Amino acid sequence: MKKSIKIVWILVAVLVLGGSLSACGNNKNNAGAKSLYTQGLEVIQLMSEMTQAEEYINLYTENDGIKEIVQNIRPGDYTTPKAVYAVSITDENLAKIAELSNLGDVSEGLKSFLTQRIFSSLMVQINSMSGVENLATASVCTIGKTFVNEDVDENVIYLYTYDNAFPVAVTFTVGEGHAVSASGTFIMYDKFTCGSADEIKSFFNYVTVEVTEVPLEK
Fold first, then answer.
1. pTM: predicted TM-score of the whole model, two decimal places
2. Which of 33, 65, 103, 150 has the smallest number of Cβ neighbours within 10 A?
């Protein structure tokens, strides 16, 4: 992978470290009865609602370009996805992306922390390819939640695709005590191919990812 791309990965990870993800809720009770599919849809519905709230957008930004992009997102129907894909990547491959082996004598705990943050930044990195205003718009419309699910033990991204709406990625990261953080992001990069599992794999041609289709739930 090109050196410039690696630098962007690290910069994006630093932004995430700085707390760029927003949280809208924290449920300390076990939410294991709800699947990741359902949890992701709940995040997406809040994101869709946010785009309808002009007062919120006006409070968050005065940039006319961002407001115009939000208007393009607003008409989409995000209630029923066309398809949902689970995207995962091993810690070993994540470490290769940012060359964590070159960090020297840092602790395994710190390496694990950075690996987690790099995973969280995957979708942000894709949006960074679409330009500053698109990246900023995606950040404005990002929503997160925290819940407990004892059945989830690995980080994963659920990619929700629609017939007449922007794709949405919900990144699930697992912490201590089976606490799961979910962060939803509109995918603004129009060259992101997500019509099938194979297309998604091909897009990540610089790093190996596992992609499986998730059965739709009613």
1. 0.82
2. 33
